[in-house]
Structures are given as structure tokens and as C-alpha cells.
């Protein structure tokens, strides 16, 4: 039996509670916070919260909450043990313990990676969906289930105790993520107690942030390889690419935050240009390649872009359709950013499955692809590649691949999407364009877009994804 990775848990108080303790945060935000504490000190240890299952907690507890973050470079793997976690709570087991942790005065930041669907909002409008089952639950009882519910109830407890609010730091790939989350929290707070909503609006802070690091799901083979390399068994390592970027609007309650600037985090006045660049250039092409690549039989993004047809397709998307709609952030060269993305995608050490990225398309498409399409069409600029990507999403969501094999579609709207598929592409397109929670009104009412999407879908069905992308 190999020795197990083990650290004596650190007893110092936590300064951060993180909701949604998935691999991405453990490979990105947690590493930055750990390094900021090493650089400049401060009690910024993190209490992680799993909103769904106990799996991560159960694996990390015997390790004293330590885990390995493994950098997957083209030249080899570099492990780093991360010891910034102080505890892990499982919300469904004990929601009150989560609220108590969030209400502790030492906690000054609550960060979140709960995925797009975790905000219980309408992706096309960014507003709270009051009919979401978890929100209905959270309005009826003080022990919440949803991330917005935890934020509102914990802020309510802080207000009652006369404490300042915590800064809410959204780390999900939503457009204007801080502002959207602020709106969702205020919508929910107002339904519970309008005075609470006013207090949060006046005293709270919800900085927008752009986060970036490619973190494929950890596999059993990764665990064994790491053990062979280090001689220690870690049941919950995370795997990540060398690149990382975090751009945060410098708006924290009382200015309280770790010294993130010391470790390369960009603290700026306006995140929007960075966020548009990243969501549209990275996530937009990631999703496009995920649907088309999956349909063409490619398991990973690296395999997809190793096919010259798809490498060319991605380059055309950047050059002709995405970059022309963007304002570059200060000091960024978008053509160089695109070239760097192409190299990141091609990294063969990153086995990022097309299936993983294809998940939750109904929540991802608006900010990744549909905004660029709408702006391109308004400016009279053709967007055939992104239109084909939307058609590929529709085909994927039908639940059948090009050989009629079943696809395991993961999406909160999965059954609804599958039911929209028809033999006639025009009818399929008409059905999908009826999804007001996905498509903005300008595209739903754009007959030219419907016609082009229909032609793209017909071509995709007739010729297959690879030939359709090889225009
Ligand atoms: C990916 C992202 O799974 C996905 O949808 O596009 O997780 C992507 O890898 C990250 O945003 C990179 O920063």
C-alpha cells in the first residue's frame, strides 16, 4: 500500500468560503489564494462547500484537506500540494453549518463556481427565475438549497448580527458575472425582505471577474500516474494546463482581500473587455469545437484540433467572426491571444473531452456564441461558422449522433431540447428559436438567421460535421 498524501489540518481561521468546490476552483482560485498568502500573509484560508454530493469532502478529509494540483505541460507534469483548504462542508447534509460559516465575521469573501445553471437565472435575460424549483424551495424555508439562497440567507444573518456583508466573488463563465449575480441576489432578497435587499444593494460588493484555466476532469489513470511519480496516493488531485489568468474588478467590501496582485491577478476597473475576449474567443470556440468535434467522432479538444479541418475552422472563427466584434482589453493583441489559444488547445497532455464541454449548452450558448452572432448580423458581417456551431448544438441535443448512436446529453433542458428535433431542418430550427430562455429576441425575430441556421443544419445532416466545417 502506498502512503497517502496527508497533512495535519491547519487550525487558522478561514477568510473565504467557496461555494461549489469543483476541480476548476481547486486548480485556479484556490491556488492563487494559497500563493497570495505565501507572498503577503493574511488569514485567507478557504472553507469549501459542496452544494450537491459528499464525494470531494470524503476524499479530502483523510488528507487533512490537502490535495495535489498537477500542471500538465507539453514537456511533462509538475505536481504542487495545495494546503489552503481549512474544511469542506456538504450543504445538503447540514445547510445551517454552511450559513454559520458564511456568517462568521472573519469571512470577508464568498466566492462561487457553481456552473452557469447554478445561478437559477434566465440565461437570455440574466434575471432570477422565481419558478426554479430550488428558488421556490428557498422562498418557503430559511435553510436553502440554491447558491443564491445561501448568499441571501447568510447576508441576512450578517445584517442581523450587525456585521458587514462579505464580498461575493463570482468565478463562473457568465457575462458580467458579478452584475448578474448581484441582480439575482437582489431579486431573491427582495422577495424575502425588501429592507435586506436595500442593505445588500448599498453595502455589498459583487465584483465582476474573468477566470481562465483549462481543467479537464480528473481520471482514475491520473491518480495512478501521480502516485507512481510521487509515491503518495492522492484521491482527489486536480489536473490543469500551465496557463492561468484571473482579472477581477477591484471592488471588495472594505477593500478586504488577499494580496492577489502579488501573484499575477489583474485587478482592474472594468472587466468587460477581458470577459468578452475570453468568453467569446476561448469558450465560444471551445463549445463550437466540442459539438462539431463530438459529432465528427473526436473524443478531446486536442484530437479535434489535430484534424486540420477543425484547426482551420477555429482560426476562421477567430479571424473573421469573433475578433471583428471585440474591443481589445488594454495591452492585449487579439490575434496573438488567438494564436495562444490554438497552442493551448493542441496541448496533447490535456485530455479535455468534447463531451464535458458540450454539457449544459442551453446555459452556455448565449454568452459564448449567440452574442457574437447577434452583433455580427447587426453589423452586416457574415457569421457562417458560429451559425454552424449552433446547428451542431441542435444536432447534438437531439440525442443521436451521425451514426444514430445515443448521446448522453447533460443539460437542464435536455428532454425539452430532444423533443424539438424533426426530420425537416426548418421545423427543428423553428422549434429551437422558440426557446426564449436561450435565444435573445433579436435572433428569434430574425428571419434571415432562421434561414441560415436551417441551411447550416441541413448541410450538417447531409454531409456530416467534418465536411460541413470544411467550407
Ligand atoms: C469549458 C470551460 O467546459 C467548458 O465549457 O469551455 O470549462 C473552459 O475550459 C474554461 O472556461 C477555461 O478557462
From TrEMBL:
The keyword ATP-binding does not apply. SUPFAM superfamilies: 6-phosphogluconate dehydrogenase C-terminal domain-like, NAD(P)-binding Rossmann-fold domains. It holds the Pfam family Mannitol_dh_C. Residues 15-258 form the Mannitol dehydrogenase N-terminal domain. InterPro entries: 6-PGluconate_DH-like_C_sf, 6PGD_dom2, Mannitol_DH, Mannitol_DH/Oxidoreductase, Mannitol_DH_C, Mannitol_DH_N, NAD(P)-bd_dom_sf. GO terms for molecular function: oxidoreductase activity, acting on the CH-OH group of donors, NAD or NADP as acceptor. Keywords: Oxidoreductase. Residues 270-460 form the Mannitol dehydrogenase C-terminal domain. Coiled coil: none annotated. This is D-mannonate oxidoreductase.
Amino acid at each position: 500500500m502506498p502512503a497517502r498524501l496527508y497533512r495535519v489540518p491547519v487550525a487558522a481561521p478561514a477568510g473565504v468560503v467557496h461555494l461549489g468546490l469543483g476541480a476548476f476552483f481547486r486548480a485556479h482560485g484556490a491556488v492563487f489564494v494559497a500563493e497570495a498568502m505565501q507572498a503577503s500573509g493574511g488569514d485567507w484560508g478557504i472553507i469549501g462547500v459542496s452544494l450537491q454530493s459528499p464525494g470531494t469532502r470524503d476524499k479530502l478529509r483523510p488528507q487533512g484537506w490537502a490535495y495535489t494540483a498537477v500542471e500538465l505541460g507539453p514537456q511533462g507534469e509538475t505536481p504542487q500540494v495545495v494546503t489552503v483548504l481549512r474544511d469542506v462542508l456538504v450543504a445538503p447534509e447540514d445547510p445551517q453549518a454552511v450559513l454559520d460559516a458564511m456568517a462568521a465575521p472573519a469571512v470577508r469573501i464568498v466566492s462561487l463556481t457553481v456552473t452557469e445553471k447554478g445561478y437559477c437565472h434566465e440565461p437570455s435575460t440574466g434575471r432570477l427565475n422565481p419558478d426554479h424549483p430550488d428558488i421556490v424551495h428557498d422562498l418557503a424555508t430559511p435553510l436553502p438549497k440554491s447558491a443564491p439562497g445561501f448568499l441571501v440567507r447568510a447576508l441576512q444573518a450578517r445584517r442581523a448580527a450587525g456585521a458587514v456583508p462579505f464580498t461575493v466573488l463570482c468565478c463562473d463563465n457568465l457575462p458580467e458575472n458579478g452584475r448578474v449575480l448581484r441582480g439575482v441576489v437582489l431579486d431573491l432578497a427582495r422577495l424575502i425582505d425588501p429592507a435586506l435587499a436595500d442593505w445588500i444593494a448599498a453595502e455589498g460588493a459583487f465584483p465582476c471577474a474573468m477566470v481562465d484555466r483549462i481543467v479537464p476532469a480528473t481520471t482514475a489513470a491520473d491518480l495512478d500516474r501521480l502516485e507512481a511519480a510521487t509515491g503518495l496516493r492522492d484521491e482527489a488531485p486536480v489536473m490543469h494546463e500551465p496557463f492561468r489568468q484571473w482579472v477581477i474588478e477591484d471592488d471588495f467590501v472594505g477593500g478586504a482581500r488577499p494580496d492577489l496582485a502579488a501573484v499575477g491577478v489583474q485587478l482592474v476597473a472594468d472587466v468587460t473587455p477581458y470577459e468578452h475576449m475570453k468568453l467569446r474567443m476561448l469558450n465560444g470556440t471551445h463549445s463550437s469545437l466540442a459539438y462539431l468535434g463530438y459529432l465528427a467522432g473526436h473524443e478531446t479538444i486536442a484530437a479535434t484540433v489535430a484534424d486540420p479541418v477543425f484547426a482551420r475552422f477555429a482560426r476562421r472563427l477567430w479571424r473573421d467572426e469573433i475578433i471583428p466584434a471585440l474591443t481589445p482589453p488594454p495591452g492585449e493583441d487579439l490575434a496573438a491571444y488567438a494564436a495562444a489559444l490554438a497552442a493551448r488547445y493542441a496541448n496533447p497532455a490535456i485530455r479535455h473531452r468534447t463531451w464535458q464541454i458540450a454539457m449544459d449548452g442551453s446555459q452556455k450558448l448565449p454568452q459564448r456564441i449567440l452574442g457574437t452572432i447577434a452583433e455580427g448580423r447587426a453589423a452586416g458581417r457574415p457569421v457562417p461558422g458560429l451559425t454552424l456551431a449552433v446547428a451542431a448544438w441542435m444536432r447534438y441535443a437531439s440525442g443521436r449522433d451521425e451514426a444514430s448512436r445515443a448521446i448522453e446529453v447533460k443539460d437542464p433542458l435536455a428532454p425539452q431540447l430532444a423533443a424539438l428535433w424533426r426530420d425537416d431542418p426548418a421545423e427543428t430550427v423553428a422549434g429551437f428559436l422558440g426557446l426564449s430562455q436561450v435565444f435573445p429576441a433579436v435572433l428569434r425575430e430574425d428571419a434571415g438567421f432562421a434561414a441560415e441556421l436551417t441551411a447550416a443544419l441541413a448541410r450538417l445532416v447531409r454531409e456530416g460535421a467534418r465536411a460541413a466545417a470544411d467550407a
